[in-house]
What does this fold into?
Amino acid sequence: MRTRAVLTEEDVTKVADAAAAHARANEWNVTIAIVDDGGHLLFLRRLDGAPPISAEMAPGKARTAALGRRESRLYEEAIRQGRTAFLSAPLTAMLEGGVPIVVNGDVIGAVGVSGVKSDQDAEIARAGIAALGIE
It folds into this structure.
């Protein structure tokens, strides 16, 4: 039998706090969402000044990254390159800003961020994941 890592409540808190600290340090008003490997919401924080729609977009980006087992930006890139069939996929936020949390090759969850430029959203998500100290 094979065992694999899972996100604990402590992990989620570390990721959320690090992501929020990175966003605040840059004065970026965003929403941060963290999901488990099945895309189920574990955490949602809308920082002061974050646009209301970001509270819908961040969980969608996280879910896309978790279920797709890859960064959500890859779907956006594929669609821009003409793979419009992805628009029919059962994912709601195929935009940059969703980053999977990978441990020993297994996706154990994802972080989704929304509220600033897409590359900045992804930067915040990566800063949160870095708090776990995984490679």
Notes: The helical segments are 9-25, 54-68, 73-80, 118-130. The chain has four helices and four strands. The mean pLDDT is 94. The domain at 9-130 is CATH 3.30.450.150 (Beta-Lactamase).
